Fold Aminotransferase class I/II.
Amino acid sequence: MNTFEHGGDVVSFAKSIDCKIDEVIDLSSNINFIKPQINCDFNSLSISSYPKYEKLYEAIANNYNVKDFELELYNGGSSAIFTLFRHLNLSHCTIYSPAYLEYKKACTIYKYDYNLINRLERLDVPLEKNSLVIFVNPSTPDGTLYDIDKLLEYWDQQDATILIDESFLDFTEGTSAVKYIHRYERLYILKSMTKFYSSAGIRVGTLISNKLNIDELKKFEPMWKLSSFDSEYLQEALKDKKFKKVARAINVKNKIYLEKILQNSGLIDYLFNSSANFVLARLKNYTAKQFQEELKKYKIMIRDCSNFDFLDEKFIRVAVKSQNDLDALKKALDAISK
């Protein structure tokens, strides 16, 4: 499996089993299966003039309870990550792993020395001074939601620059670390709207920090980097005030159902307690690759997690999806376990 490969490659999967893309049940991608109500006619959207972003900044700032000058927007979360690595120009990075694989990729591209802390075993590991600390909360691929107050204090004592990735926090009732951006001078928060707002094709990622840090980031940004379509979609999505509550409730309900399906299948050795919209499991008698081959018969795609640090070939991640998709998974697991 490729070092930095992700889930969600439905096109390749469909080709491998010779079926139509819309026949695939994609349980590998952690994109919200519930979508916000969008009231916009994109055919009437004016694209003959250069885009303006003031309203988008204001809408996203209100959504995350910060000022519009305390955030900067990027062409997706990965773009925000790469830009921050390039801008900080540090020499060392510490990643609490397993974590989103783009962080290791960024270290490789920008020639950071890095070390990995196995957060599944312990968090209280000594930290090198002046490191860029990466912490994903809730984590991926296991969905653990951490209380990081004491960690923030320790990282600050070690003169660390801190990036908290909160891409999946909207799925939880957890508290954001944005409340600390004025307490810790070198704290950045990453917000990806891709996951919760079911918009992988709308490339908008957000970095939140204090005004001084954001002003420094803005100095090196191009004037136009988001399309009018990106901007209009997210503004409309954020107008759906019922969406957060409804999406959270349905995802929690379906996650409980998914967990029961996996636990009762007899195929799972261990199931992680997740606060996000996916579940990490360790298989009993199959490797992830073998298990995926079995599921191909049912056109079901899951995430092989063997390329995550500290996980072996038996780990899989299954995303929370619709009742019908999970029913199909249950039927497949019942057949496999016979």
Observations:
- The chain has a mean pLDDT of 93.
- The domain at 10-35+243-336 is CATH 3.90.1150.10 (Aspartate Aminotransferase, domain 1).
- The longest strand covers residues 92-97.
- Residues 39 and 78 are 28 Å apart (CA to CA).
